[in-house]
Predict the structure.
Amino acid sequence: MRRRELLMLIGGTPSFWVLPARSQQPNRMRLIGVLMAHSQNDAEFLTYLDAFRQRLRELGWVEGRNVLIETRWGALDDAQSTRQAATELVALQPDVILTQNTPPTGSMLQVTRQIPVIFVVVTDPVGSGFVESLARPGGNATGFTIMEPSMAGKWLALLKEIAPNVVRAAFLFNPATAPYVNYYLKPFNDAAQALGLEAFAAPIHGIAELEMITGAQANTPNTGLIVIPDGYLNVHRAEIISLAARHRLPAVYPWRFFPESGGLLSYGSDQRDEFWLAAEYADRILRGEKPSRLPVQAPTRFELVVNLSTAKALGLDVPPTLLARVDRIIE
């Protein structure tokens, strides 16, 4: 029987055709949009997207067979470019969108409140207006946060532990790419008071200011740096590490790629983990679950990394009590 005759036989009732259409959806080609905060030339962040792809494959989503991935890169600190990239992805009508970092996620959710969005490496999704609550996101977005605000106090305590002579600490961030700075700043100030340190915010808007601020800290003895999770600081990590070394400033960072590149010490979560878990949420959404019912998850694993060569260059002896807690030592 031809399709037209069958339609006439059942009276053309749409409800008869809904369930078969849905049952065939897993076999059709699906589209995932990705909005990355960093440049495609940054090998570190390419590995994160590779982790997302690998987990998708393990879950049965193979590129070119049943899923396509469309990616936009490097629109972190340019609001207009970020909005344009988000608009381009939404125009493709993907089944789900992955966003990295707070500014790109904000841009994406300004463009769409219908397409499911999974965010990763976001600091304060409730305060940023991305979700109603962590347990019940309530809208079209859910995802994975990076660190609790109490981490600011832990970074400061680690700075004091590895560099006991430090009496002042600068809190480094870019206001344009870290609109959530107050999330960490109050715990930072509270911890500084408890540790008897002088602490101050050090906002920078470009490399010239970064050079000026680090140079100024070098003129004041026993000063250290706290580098917060901030996409702009990630992009310019080579400059930050170089300036800290030149001015002999002990610095604590949030990600392990800082000490891997010559920074002193890092303590934080692993962004690869978030991309891996984001693939699991993408799988669940592609199979019919709603982002509003998938809770926002916080990291459960943190790693402490110390670069002993950098410590030696700064004249620092890493205490045995700290070495005993280190997850990775870079010689």
